[in-house]
Structures are given as structure tokens and as C-alpha cells.
Amino acid sequence: MDAPLSPDAPMDPIAAVTHPDPYPHYATWRDGPALAWVPPRGVWMATRGDVVRRLLATPALRVRPVTEPVPAALLGRPAGELFGLLIRMNDGPVHDAHRPAIGQALAGLPLPQVRARALALARAQAGRGTLDDALFELPVQAVAQALGFAAAELPRVAAWVREFVACLSPLAGTDDLNRAHRAAESLMARMTRLVADAAPHDASLLQAVQAGGGAQARSARPLIANLVGLLSQTCDATAGLVGNSLLAWARHGAPPPDATPPAWIEEVARHDAAVQNTRRFVAEDTVLEGQPLRAGDVVLLVLAAAQRDPAMNPAPDRFDPERPARQLLGFGHGPHACPGQALATLLAGAAVQALREQGLDREAVARHAGRYRASVNTRIPSWET
Ligand code: HEM
Questions:
Q1: pTM of the predicted model as reported, rounded to 2 decimal places
Q2: Residues whose beta carbon lies within 6 Å of some atom of ligand 1
Q3: CA torsion sign, 161 to 352 to 273 to 265?
């Protein structure tokens, strides 16, 4: 279902994720039915703002198929255990037990301090590797730093996170899966030690999550897994936001030189979403948006199309950092809405600022050949040939 189609195959919402310009296609699909059947992919697709918003909040749709809470390819191995404990991948008890602590800890982050530390880290790193690598390294290392990892460990932790997240994609091969299992094991072991060694007075993100988790849950495996989950949720999505922000800089003009304002980054997140779509699975036979659906059906919620719906954001194709009352769906909505939106915006702003300060050439960024990393949902530009 998820294999990349050949370049001359008809456009569909999975091919759209990595297409140089999917937005005219999204506009056409928004004029179609509320739920449209996509024959080559075997999924239902929703592209309108009101429909996507409603479906993200309906309990009839689950984040995982009822019959396969953990993908069969991961079952019984370390990446499968980690996957199965993540709030992102659960409805019900695991989500309800750990979502509040994660949400409160992220909401309580002292953003100016986090920004200053992330900028210092980004300044120290910018220019070291390729631009493609910088998209990933800066945000994940900044979150690892906020959790309380020592500076010397940040590159190793970031490498494990990238290896683990590869298994979340249906495009992962056997080697990717084997690396992901080893990385999941290392991340769980290292996070367990970090939790055990943390002093109660540390003002880290880790302490904030633990404080909200209740005394019994402090070192429990689900909590450890969801601390790792903060890193894995950051990885590809924020890389996409940094990359798409650089493209917006090249195409639409510079943000102010001293700092990249959150509203400017938020407009990038609306105009060219990093997470283009997310999936939901029908729990039992039902009717949604007037369409009968069967248990096990897959519904693709095209967040990137929904937030370009003119009914949500007037003149949606215009890049307008000053846009009043911007409506975002690219960070989700409802019970699984992203609790990291403010942090992600801040990290992307710091990364863009540091890269520009290091002399990143706008012309070089503009020479992007329209290539994106292979993915079924995340839009991450690549400048490598
Ligand atoms: C540009 C960057 C990011 C984007 C576009 C993004 C987007 C999203 C989206 C769309 C969801 C909901 C998925 C769904 O409902 O199917 C989500 C969930 C989540 N995100 Fe983010 N995210 C970003 C960065 C971050 C960061 C930096 C963190 C934390 C450090 C984070 C933590 C989470 C968590 C924990 C969830 C699961 C919430 C739940 O299931 O209750 N995200 N994100």
C-alpha cells in the first residue's frame, strides 16, 4: 500500500508528501467528497478543514488498528516495546496516564531560556555537517539537552533517535529495522540511567515530566518510553519545519536578521506543513461524514490540505506571516494534538537563525531541486544530489 509510486503514476495523497508542489492537487481534492476513496492506496482521504478537525476528535477513529496495536514487523523486539508504550500510538489507558504529565511539562517550559540554550547549541553546531544533517541534528540535540543529557552525549543520542524513528515508516527495510531495535534498546537503557541519576532539584524537562507523573510512575517503563518519545516526536517533524522554513526564506523573503519570530515560523508550518498527513483506523463499522466505513478501514487526514482550506485561512496560498487568526492543523487537533508546538516553533527559529548567522547562502538554498526525503507523511527537503 505504501510503496512509492513510479514518477509517472497519478498523483495521490502519499505521493503528494514529497511532490515539489502538492498544493494545487490538494485544492482539487478539497472540492471532492468529504471522504474520498483513493484506489491505489486503499485508504479514505479527508482534505477539508472542518472535516479533518471533526475526524481528529472522533473516538470512532483510533491511532492504531484495533487488531494490530504494534506493527507486526516490530512485535516482540525492542522497537516494538517502545512503540507500544508511546502516547502517540495509544488511545485509552496508556495515553490517559501519561499525556497530562507530558503536556504540562512542555507547557511549563521556560521558553526564553530554552531558546537561549538551543541557539547556543545551534551556533556551536551550524556549519559542521551538511545542511541535510543540520535539519535533524539541531532540534533533537536541543530537546536532549533540555531533558538533561550532557553536551558530550548529544550527538550519540541524536544518532540513536534517527535510527529508531526509521522503523516508524512503512518504507523501512530489514537493515533499518535491525538498527532501530538496537537504537531503541540503547535509548531505553540510557534514559533509564538518566532518570535514576537525575537530582530532584534539576530544572530539566525530564524532572518536569516526572513531577507530573505521580510518585509511582517515576521510573516505570511507560514513562521512560515517553521521555524517549519526546525525542522521536521531535526528529523528523522538526527537521521538516527547519527545512521548509529555509525554503520559505529563499522564496518569500527574510525574517528579521536578529531573530526568527514565532509567527513567521508558524506561517511556514501552515503554508508548507512538515507533517502533511496522519492516519486513523476505524475501530468498528460506522458512518462518518455520511460515508459508511468498515472496521479496519484506514482514513488519511491530510493536515496540509486542511490548513490551506480557504474556509479556515482566507487566501490560503499566500505566505503571510502577519496573517490574523491563523488556524493550524499541521500540529494535529483533539486528544492527540501535538504538545510540542511552541517548542518546535522555537527550535526551528533558533536553527534558522544560527544557520543564517553562519553565512548560509540564500542562493544555495534557493537552488533546491524540489527533492524531499522518502516518506509517507513528513515533508523534509533535501539539498543532497
Ligand atoms: C514541527 C515540528 C512538529 C510537528 C509538525 C508536530 C506535529 C505533530 C502532530 C501532527 C501530532 C499529532 C499526530 C496525530 O494526531 O496523529 C503530534 C503529536 C505529538 N507531538 Fe508533535 N510535532 C512537532 C514537534 C514536536 C516536538 C518538538 C515535541 C516534543 C518535544 C512533540 C511531541 C509530540 C507528542 C508527545 C505527540 C503525541 C501526543 C499524543 O498522542 O497525545 N512534537 N505532533
A1: 0.95
A2: 63, 87-88, 95, 99, 102, 143, 229-230, 233-234, 237-238, 241, 274-275, 278, 330-332, 336, 338-340, 343-344
A3: positive
